[in-house]
Specification:
Blueprint: H1 6-15, H2 19-22, H3 27-44, H4 51-67, E1 77-83, H5 89-96, E2 118-124, E3 129-135, H6 137-154, H7 159-190, H8 204-217, H9 223-254
Helix pairs in contact: 3-6, 4-6, 6-7, 6-9, 7-8, 7-9
Length: about 260
């Protein structure tokens, strides 16, 4: 089939590699971007695929890689991530905890509740104490990842540039999730003086700053949807700036010297 045939041109338009799709001033290209991004997002969030359940273990593995062997500069502190619905949850917590727990303590371990499918064990080996927080893989990481993937795949650009866009966007997304988790555990445990395992005792000023950041980053339901769009926009603008500067340098190098 010829590369100029109607089906091939239509396919290139949907993929976003055709000149008409890359014309951001065209209303048709804008409509195409919206429809493709929406369709991909709906597919990723489809209950039939149940990608959230498959993503949750990756989210917990990511959290353990970050914090299971230390929290920031505090090697004596750690955060372990568990499936809050696991049948052997007590045994997993007991193996990770600094002290041996009696079997009677099992009833005190929080279980999965609604969207909160992940249990966090915060502990200090120095103080031989710990506590629990619950969070959800969907709103904390899966929904932002699905939105970001959808708009990256719908972005009208060459496949090479889209590959770079994908890599840079998801590096920033990983940093964003790590920041959210850090704020969550600091606000909910490590910066609470009443907790026996606390690491920080912030002043009233820094407590107010922490509360405000937590409210925006972790407790605001709209932020799950806005943050990936901001990440995408930052990367797109950054790549456009780099591409423009490279083009200017190339043109200057090819220009005849006087």
């Amino acid at each position: 089939m010829s590369s100029n045939s109607a089906p091939i041109r239509w396919l290139k338009f949907l993929v976003g590699t055709s000149p008409s799709a890359r014309d951001l001033h065209s209303p048709v290209a804008a409509v195409r971007f919206t429809l493709v991004a929406t369709a991909i997002y709906a597919l990723l969030m489809s209950p039939q695929l149940n990608l959230q359940a498959r993503f949750a273990p990756l989210f917990r593995t990511f959290g353990n890689k970050l914090f299971a062997n230390g929290f920031g500069t505090h090697d004596e502190a750690s955060v372990h991530f568990f499936d809050a619905g696991a049948k052997d949850l007590f045994d997993q917590v007991n193996r990770a905890f600094v002290l041996e727990l009696p079997r009677s303590y099992e009833k005190n371990i929080p279980r999965a509740q609604g969207e909160k499918d992940t249990l966090l064990l915060l502990q200090s080996t120095e103080k031989k104490s710990g506590g629990f927080l619950r969070t959800g893989a969907r709103l904390m990481a899966f929904t932002p990842a699905a939105i970001l993937l959808a708009i990256v795949l719908a972005t009208p650009c060459s496949l090479r540039r889209r590959t770079v866009l994908f890599a840079c966007s998801f590096i920033l997304l990983a940093a964003f999730v790590a920041f959210r988790l850090s704020i969550l555990v600091v606000h909910g445990g490590f910066a609470v003086p009443q907790k026996s395992y606390h690491l920080y005792e912030p002043s009233d000023f820094w407590r107010d700053v922490l509360n405000r950041v937590y409210t925006v980053v972790c407790d605001n339901p709209t932020f799950h949807y806005v943050a990936p769009i901001i990440i995408w926009a930052v990367v797109v603008v950054g790549l456009s700036f780099v591409a423009y500067n490279l083009q200017v340098r190339q043109e200057n190098s090819l220009a005849p010297k006087t």
